Amino acid sequence: MNEATLERFHYDNKIVKYFGAATIIWGLIGMLVGVLAATQLFLPEANLGNPYTTFGRIRPLHTNAVIFAFVGNAIFAGVYYSMPRLLKTPMWNKTLSWFHFWGWQLIILAAAITLPLGFTTSKEYAELEWPIDIAIAIVWVAFGANMIGTLIKRRERHMYVAIWFYLASFITVAVLHIFNSLELPVNFWKSYSAYAGVQDALVQWWYGHNAVAFFLTTPFLGLMYYFLPKAANRPVYSYKLSIVHFWSLIFLYMWAGPHHLLYTALPEWAQVLGTVFSVMLIAPSWGGMVNGLLTLRGAWDKVREEPVLKFMVVAITAYGMSTFEGPMLSLKNVNAIAHYTDWIVAHVHIGGLGWNGFLTFGMLYWMWPRLFKTTIYSKKLANAHFWIGTLGIIFYALPMYVAALTQFLMLREFDEMGRLAYGNFLQTVVQLVPMYVLRAFGGLLYLSGAVIMVYNMYKTAKKGVFQEYEEDQAPALTKSYNATGEFWHRAWERKPIFFTILATIAIAIGGAIEIIPTILVKSNVPTISSVKPYTPLELEGRDLYIANGCVGCHSQMIRPFRFETERYGEYSKAGEFVYDRPFLWGSKRTGPDLHRIGGKYPDSWHYFHMENPGSMSPGSLMPPYPWMTTNLMDYSDLPAKIRTLQKLGVPYPEGYDEQAMEELDAQANQIVDNLKDAGVEVLPHTEIVALIAYLQRLGTDIKTASN
Questions:
Q1: What is the domain-level CATH number for residue 540?
Q2: Residue-averaged pLDDT of the chain
Q3: CA separation (Å) from 127 to 63, 170, 278, 551?
Q4: Exposed e or buried b for every residue in 125-159, given b needs 16+ CB within 10 A?
Q5: For residue 565, which of 97, 188, 204, 501 sits 20 to 30 Å off, Cα-Cα?
Q6: How far apart are CA 671 and CA 694, in angstroms?
Q7: Of 324-338, 346-360, 449-463, 516-530, the least confident
Q8: Which residues contact 482 (CB under 8 A, 6 or more apart)?
Q9: Domain assignment present for 281
Q10: Could you say which residues bind heme b 2; high-spin here (predicted)?
């Protein structure tokens, strides 16, 4: 190529450095909060005695910080580094790049403030309230527009495989976020979901499963396809395997969400669909793992020497383990054992700590020295980080598997008289304490490794000189091109808009086929005439329950197993949840299921249990909530809540918003009188009264064997 035909341009390394630094900073914060949350499970005192740092409030803070702050910034750092180099052009719009960076950091900051304050929708991985949801959509679209603009002005004719995964991730996360976040605001920090009960559960896990797929998996596969060949100095093992891997993965993933809802009140046909497609997912997932590992053919000697490759090999192996375990957990007989136990926690963290964490570390160790035109400060420290992090994953995951099997076997055991051998749920939790201690130790090891990395990155930066603009040159993309006899997929790779449309169709089919019938066909959710909307006080109590993150430990879904119905009562029916916005079926039981708790204990039991759980349940690991007995509720937005729910179809009578306060006071005074009879003096507008009203309502709408 003649020098005169080459165009000169540069890559912007500053945006990459900023996203990389944000990855490191937020990663440390997210992991630190995770260690605190893990400690709270065996040491209630670690809840620190105030509403803002209890487990229920900091658990979503931890998941959001790790997923959207740590992993999210890592994705953006990798994309802003790799995409310009793959397309031989700077990012389309520098202003959009910086809008994306600062917008995303402000969103994370808003999450860090609002979640501890109790402003939450309680939906898994989508807890943030509606103003932040809108901000996420705007910033995400800015990121996508910048990517597509860069594709259009590229100098490279074909899109490399990594970019396929970046595009699919952008499209799908946008679709998932918008549809799952449809809600009607009550005020600036409170909204109600557009979906209710069974439908809300299906939409949430369509989102939740695919948020894992298209935020934690597909963008990282794109990063793997770029950074692994670079680090190993080897081409990707198989181009054709990457094609099969990509299209089958994005098509199949969208069908698999219902496997999170097996044995629940979800229609059986949806559960079966979720199971079938989950099992099929193992093929494309392992196709990606094989493609990654075989890329290292002829380079395994480097793995011994290079910490970057060590991190990447373990990351890809963890991806393979998680994507084998996921389909296995979707089998109903395995799911019956694992669901609501620590098995799910172990599964998620094999992926999170192993796949996302280690690939991020490997990428940073490779990229950081190149940004500063130097070499890594200390390979020994990087290797130490690798081994400490690996031990952290082992100490985290193995105890959780042991805890899961221990708890399941105890919960399902009957004695020779046909009674539950461990009738009190707390008996099983106490047995898990040593496992929880080991899990927290594993998290501390993993965090320690990350601290070592921060020091190594800092010293690397100090050792080198940052190169803000990196010069490059390439020929312009010519319009005329003879494509005769070209492989069909190569033709698609020349047409980014066409490719994006095809990917959108692939991801839309599965979700539409599952969700539309569940919302529109009434037979999917049989109605129960005795199920009535919540009273005003129960509604306020439910919102308080949600604000405190109680669903993080307590489910409200009794499955049709003998050991569950004997323990909790009649199994849950779809029609019982028609006024639940959002649904509260939960995904982990650190405490017992609460769906039939209504009427089981007197009001005073709930009062003393919230004030000091150990007084009612000796040995309880639940944190106390003494402030609820004195904190006053603010009922000023009650009329707005009633009107909002009326718009969503809840059959409150006309003008009910005007009389709701009168009805609330009557019910609150009745609970106050009940407590007074038990020797407890409390004001009617305290938080505890509203919470008691909600708990005493649960499961009482239908007649059960225990009624």
A1: 1.10.760.10
A2: 95
A3: 10, 20, 25, 12
A4: bbbbbbebbebbeebbebbbebbeebbeebbbebb
A5: 204
A6: 11
A7: 516-530
A8: none
A9: yes
A10: 347
The tokens for 569 are: 């009562």
**What range does the domain containing 310 cover?**
13-467+488-515
Q: Rounded to the nearest 5°, which phi and psi values hold at 9?
A: -160, 180
Distance CA 510, CA 110 (A): 33
In this predicted structure, the answer to whether residue 705 has a pLDDT above a threshold of 70 is no
Q: Are residues 321 and 405 in the same domain?
A: yes
What integer pLDDT is reported at residue 483 of this predicted model? 66
Tell me the three state secondary structure of residue 171.
helix
Number of domains in the chain: 2
What are the binding residues?
62, 209, 259-260, 347, 349
- Measured CA to CA, the distance from residue 584 to residue 32 in angstroms comes to 27
Q: Is residue 523 part of a domain?
A: no
439 and 587 inside one domain: no
Report helix, strand or coil for 578: coil
Q: pLDDT-derived band of residue 1, with 50, 70 and 90 as boundaries? A: very low
Coil, strand or helix at 387: helix
State whether 444 and 547 are in the same domain.
Answer: no
Distance (Å) of CA 191 to CA 48, 127, 324, 345: 29, 11, 38, 29
Q: What CA–CA distance (Å, rounded) separates 532 from 676?
A: 28
Termini Cα distance of the chain: 85
Helix (H, G, I), strand (E, B) or coil at 186: strand
Same domain, 447 and 542: no
Q: Residue 192, SS3? A: strand
Separation between Cα atoms, residue 456 and residue 442, nearest integer Å: 21
Both 460 and 540 in one domain: the answer is no
Q: Residue 525: inside a domain, yes or no?
A: no
Coil, helix or strand for 586?
A: coil
Query: Cβ of 416: how many Cβ atoms within 10 Å?
Result: 6
Q: Are 170 and 178 in contact (CB under 8 A)?
A: no
Residue corresponding to tokens 């010519």? 478
Tokens for 52, please give them: 């803002």
- Tokens linked to 412: 């399902």
Q: Which residues contact 484 (CB under 8 A, 6 or more apart)?
A: none
Question: CA 133 to CA 243: how far, in whole Å?
Answer: 33
Q: Is the same domain home to 458 and 557?
A: no
Name the amino acid, one letter, at 23.
T
- Sequence ranges of the binding site for Cu cation: 209, 259-260
Structure tokens at 583: 């649904």
Per-residue pLDDT of 91-135, as tens digits, reads 999 999 999 999 999 999 999 999 999 999 999 999 999 999 999
Cβ within 8 Å of residue 655, ≥6 positions away: none
Measured in degrees and rounded to the nearest 5, phi and psi for residue 582 equal -85, 175
**H/E element, 10:** strand 6-12
Written as one letter, the residue type at 58 is I
Could you read off the pLDDT of 266-299 as tens digits, one per residue?
Answer: 999 999 999 999 999 999 999 999 999 999 998 8
**Two tokens, residue 425:** 């749920």
> Do 583 and 416 touch, CB atoms closer than 8 A?
no
Q: Which contiguous run of DSSP H or E holds residue 406?
A: helix 379-411
CA torsion sign for 281, 284, 288, 293 is: positive
Structure tokens at 417: 């008289």
Residue 575 to residue 682: CA distance in whole angstroms:
35
* Residue 169 and residue 91 in one domain: yes
What span, in angstroms and rounded, lies between the C-alpha atoms of 79 and 147? 9
Q: Is 479's pLDDT higher than 90?
A: no
pTM of the model: 0.96
